[in-house]
Design a protein that fits this description.
Distance between the termini of chain A: 16 Å
Structural class of chain A: alpha+beta
CATH class of chain A: Mainly Beta
CATH architecture of chain A: Roll
Largest interface: A-B, 43 and 42 residues
Radius of gyration of chain A: 16 Å
Order of helices and strands of chain A: HEEEEHHEEHHE
Oligomer: homodimer
Strand order of the largest sheet of chain A: 2-1-5-6-7-4-3
Number of domains of chain A: 1
CATH superfamily of chain A: Electron Transport, Fmn-binding Protein, Chain A
Number of helices of chain A: 5
CATH topology of chain A: Pnp Oxidase, Chain A
Number of strands of chain A: 7
Chain lengths: ~150, ~150
């Protein structure tokens, strides 16, 4: 799958998985809703601001900004339809009040109805993507990358 | 969510996400089908054996056995139904020919019809889970952990 196609599929998905790793090299993974703007992936942290520093994804990114995000399609009945798209990059925190924070929230609210009713108020995680990649079973019939 | 309930929900899911991290602290995440036996999570590598050493998840586990696995439920229309369950533990490789490899394949084939038609022939990743944890939106209405 070309980087362009991987980015396209990634950007149109509803849910991604964000992998981080702390200073002691312990990996962590959480589901995130997100929005892609150019080569940056935004996801919100829905906690009250005072609690956000306790979230492991944020502590991990502060210790080690290398992150990976994955979007994938699974179908129990037809493994020939499986695919995934991955974004590897550098994570950083976008704090409320900045122009970028307003942009990110605007994109997230336009994608998710639940955010329109109850907008997130805390920081946003921005991932600046250095590499888009992907795989699909139909394009690689010899092997199942799962 | 209690560890017991997290393990129960995890074990009954169809797809998990496996996060690993290499020696340089770069996280990685892949979707995996799996089977839980006691406190070990098994997932197969569907490549030909000679290619398995090139897979990043295997290279990462060899460099750094700390792994995290996540199972989650997402519903665009009702975020009050979201939940996730996490397994944190130590990864290792189970090679073909061993009793444990036969057990793992047997469990995987009984869970996934696609594996009955085309059983995996390569190594199996075993994760010995040290901690089960979980979260559900309905039990935590004040905050959305996404």
């Amino acid at each position: 799958m070309t980087p362009k196609e991987a980015r396209r599929r990634f950007a149109s998905a509803r849910l991604a998985h964000l992998a981080t790793s702390d200073a002691h090299n312990r990996p962590h993974v959480v589901p995130v809703v997100f929005a892609v703007e150019a080569d940056t992936v935004y996801s919100a942290v829905d906690h009250k601001p005072k609690r956000t520093t306790q979230l492991r994804r944020l502590a991990n990114i502060a210790e080690n900004p290398a992150v990976a995000l994955l979007v994938d399609y699974y179908d129990d009945d037809d493994w020939d339809r499986l695919w995934w798209a991955r974004a590897e990059g550098t994570g950083r925190l976008v704090v409320p009040g900045s122009e970028e924070h307003r942009l990110a929230l605007s994109r997230l609210k336009s994608r998710y109805v639940a955010y329109q009713d109850q907008p997130p108020t805390g920081s946003v995680v921005a991932v600046d993507v250095g590499r888009w990649s992907g795989w699909s079973a139909s394009a690689n019939p010899a092997g199942n990358e799962l």
